[in-house]
Write the structure tokens for this entry.
Amino acid sequence: MPPAPFVRSGKSSRTTDSPISYFIQKAIENPGLVSFAAGLVDEGSLPVEEVRATAAEILSDQLAGQAALQYGSTQGLTALREQVLKLVCDADGVTPADVNLTAADVCITTGSQQLLYLVGEILFDPDDIVITEAPSYFVFHSLLQSHGARVLTVPMDADGMRTDELEALLDRLRRSGELPRVKAVYTVDYFQNPTGLSLSVERRKKLVELVRRFSTDHRILILEDAAYRELRFTGDDLPSAKRFDTANEYVIYTSTFSKPCAPGLKTGYAIMPPDVMEAVLHLKGSHDFGSASLSQHIASRLSASPAYARHAEELRGVYRHKRDVMLKALETEFADFPAASWTVPAGGFYVWLTLDGIDTGTTSPLMAAALEAGVLYVPGECGHVADESGCVPNNEIRLCFGVATPEQVTEGIRRLRKACAALSGSKKKVVAKV
Ligand SMILES: Cc1ncc(COP(=O)(O)O)c(C=O)c1O
């Protein structure tokens, strides 16, 4: 007789497997597949030599080696926190003092994902409201689902989240008496996962102004996820939303060494208001009482060295080339396909493809035809949250050019077009309004 079931916590029973597991499994089952699904980084340009040299430098010094192999503090290595603060403030064109920040406002985390998790833990009770872009980073949505939080969404255009729509939404919530439940606005404001779009400077200012204005009886926080910021390959960097939070009150800024350096280091960081920091540190204390020391020591030395800047520059070239190859392949293959349109990212590694009238969902004929043709993508529906009627838009696709080689990118888009051709005659599906 099987044992009686164990009794899950409320949070565990609300937590489901990430949709990405399905796609990783498919890629493992079909090694010939070109995968545009998983958001992995380019393999060939991982900084093996730079990390080897840095680790050797640390471990060849007895005292430095001991420090790197010992437990560290919950908040993270001071040298790395100082380095991170410099990195972000230099990018924003300010001094830490201009924006009321010191290294005490920085926390090192086990990837930026841990920060998202910890912030979720300190902020959300069931039925609390979180506002996100539509679409948004689906792993964050899964996290919100396990908290039982209500996700309300704001549409995007070429300049990122529509702040006029955000204002209208906040206004509606105030009038319906639900504003007290709004805890945070989440934005992936640089080359967003999944659309590749960025928030314009004007809207960054407006975002901060809006949360300030609507924080009447409690503070609404902005969770600014800048994971892809350093991977810009065209145009000038944009100041962060954090840059406009000059008293360090409203914005939690998080980013990571995973994208511009190596996800294997699993080292991320966050800059946040002191009271939020206190709550995060209490929780991180019982979570892991500090992220891996060795990774932090490597990230600290590496990010302060010229090798880091050289590597980031090289990476930008690698991803620019892959983006160009993907855009060219889309233009060639979908030239005769007016239903197709796509974004042109200025950085990061995602292109968002819209196929008007074609169901792109996990169980759709297109997904089956794509697998048959040998290409894998993430259905756009994974990035959306169902509206009141339970509908999500189902005619979009996230294409990641992070890990595929340029040759695979060209071949994968050819296969995707072949899959679309195999569907000719398929009926237009109803697409829910976001
Ligand atoms: C938007 C976004 N935020 C956060 C993360 C987490 O990255 P990490 O935990 O490796 O820093 C990812 C990873 O793909 C991401 O796409």
